[in-house]
Amino acid sequence: MNFCSHCGARVATLTPPGDHLPRFVCESCGTIHYQNPKLIVGCVPEYAGQILLCRRAIEPRLGYWTVPAGFMENGETLQQAAARESREEALADVEILSLLSVVHVIHAHQVHVFFRARLREPSFGPAPESLEVKLVPHAAIPWGELAFPSTEFTLRRYLEDLASGSDAHHFTEFDRRLQAGRVKP
Amino acid sequence: MNFCSHCGARVATLTPPGDHLPRFVCESCGTIHYQNPKLIVGCVPEYAGQILLCRRAIEPRLGYWTVPAGFMENGETLQQAAARESREEALADVEILSLLSVVHVIHAHQVHVFFRARLREPSFGPAPESLEVKLVPHAAIPWGELAFPSTEFTLRRYLEDLASGSDAHHFTEFDRRLQAGRVKP
């Protein structure tokens, strides 16, 4: 951030009175521009013992596989966001079920939230953001070609819970801030 | 948003190619400025059958009671954010336990997340953001003087679950977009 989005003046980086962290502050109009984590929301759509996966048509991780997920928008719930992303990326109509995983992607300033889901009809296809969309049997998940650590974490917990009959949710975190030279997911 | 935070030019409101919603777009440098929901994170700190409540020293809802909560920062997990807010608002050291509630505050573009928590020591006090901090027996919760609907939802579910021995989490939403003339929480 270089300029104040409210008045257009240059912003300074300083710790406001009573605060404990440096912020982007506009010394012209007084606006403090807070930077906060963003929510990425998705689901694991299941149909007849198979999982709906999408191969990404966009960066980052173009060509790699993931479950439908994307940035939460203003004006919707987490569940509505997860269902919308399935429509947008896989032309799929899903029923969102229980909370499955919450993944803190610290270096990317993101919180990823995934739900279990049920594909209502075996009808789907690649929207512009996907190269390919398909139903994959559990044993055929392409573990070596998954797009993100949060995708892998979520799918592994999903299968474990399915095997044990659990409907639990799982927290984890990934932090590559200290690993120089690595590509951000 | 009036100006591009990257280059300082005026932004336009338009729907970018391939998108489905209007965004703030800088036609000078090409930056699209997405607006997404922010995370508010808090907890219900319990000690010996009582709950730690704070009376707000700041707007909105100055003078009303709430549990420790605030905006999640970059670089932390939800649990770390909840513990930090207890330190900052109540000078309290808490152990964060299970997920309790997720409240979509649609009109405010916020997602509120609360955890159960345990106050490690009966040591606390008002930090600058609080007028007063105290341990309150369950039967003495000031229901009519709570700061936010998400506070009330969270405390009611907390007590119900305690009574039934449940460790569940609960989703809800509040949407005042269509109720003109009401004060935003």
Question: Could you walk me through the main structural features you see in this protein, from its secondary elements to its overall organization?
Answer:
Two copies of one chain form a homodimer. In chain A, a hairpin with an 8-residue loop joins strand 5 and strand 6. In chain A, 16% of the residues lie in helices and 35% in strands. The relative contact order of chain A is 0.19. Chain A is elongated. Chain A is built from two helices and eleven strands. In chain A, the strands form two sheets. In chain A, strands 4, 5, 6, 7, 8, 9, 10 and 11 form an eight-stranded mixed beta sheet that branches. A three-stranded antiparallel beta sheet of chain A has the order 1-2-3, with no helix packed on it. The C terminus of chain A is likely disordered. Chain A starts with 11 loop residues before the first strand and ends in an 11-residue tail after the last strand. The first copy, chain A, has 185 residues and is of the alpha+beta class. The interface between A and B is large, with 41 and 41 residues.
Keywords:
185 residues, alpha+beta, eight-stranded mixed sheet, disordered C terminus
Helix content of chain A: 10-25%
Shape of chain A: elongated
Roughly how many Å apart are the termini of chain A? 22 Å
Kindly estimate the percentage of residues of chain A that lie in beta strands according to DSSP: 35-45%
Quaternary form = homodimer
